[in-house]
């Protein structure tokens, strides 16, 4: 059941948008008298700026006799949410968690101006040092002005303070030293962040030279 299409409205199991459910609650629909359970899929949509209020009102207005199930793969504050449900409806709300993934998760990086995808974290959550180094090398091989040419108008053709154009290579040296000194301590996300910072600073040489005192 959506705003445009309604199929089998008398079925024993109804699938509908949250907006339709809220509308039923507003109207006091007779259908709700026969409802025992409501399953909210993708409950993290409560955080959505536009639709979040629809989910919140639907949960608030549901009669206490109707039980609820909430599904989400990305609910970061599940415990806090469960506590809110308990306080709101005066009934237990259990958090059931699993880290099992039917589809393995892999992390790739596609660098701006690069030549392809780089697998940096595989399906076993192992950091791929070899691919990360290839990714790093892809930045080094690019000239500092390559991206500014592709993004003409953002840099305005301004020259680097001091006349130097080696901002990218300077950052690369810093990154290389950090990797050598702290390779065991830096996890994959920190390493990726360093590359992103290197990437950004090479795009904005004025910002780099004005902000860093090396």
From TrEMBL:
Keyword Hydrolase: yes
Keyword Iron recorded: no
Molecular function via GO: ATP binding; helicase activity; hydrolase activity; nucleic acid binding
GO cellular component, one term: nucleus
Keywords on record: ATP-binding, Helicase, Hydrolase, Nucleotide-binding
GO BP term, pick one: maturation of 5.8S rRNA
Gene3D superfamilies in the cross-refs: P-loop containing nucleotide triphosphate hydrolases (3.40.50.300)
Transmembrane regions listed in the UniProt entry: none
UniProt region (Disordered), positions on chain: 143-165
Basic and acidic residues composition bias: residue spans: 143-155
PROSITE patterns: HELICASE_ATP_BIND_1
Protein name (Swiss-Prot/TrEMBL): Helicase ATP-binding domain-containing protein
The organism of origin for this protein: Gossypium lobatum
Organism placement in taxonomy: Eukaryota, Viridiplantae, Streptophyta, Embryophyta, Tracheophyta
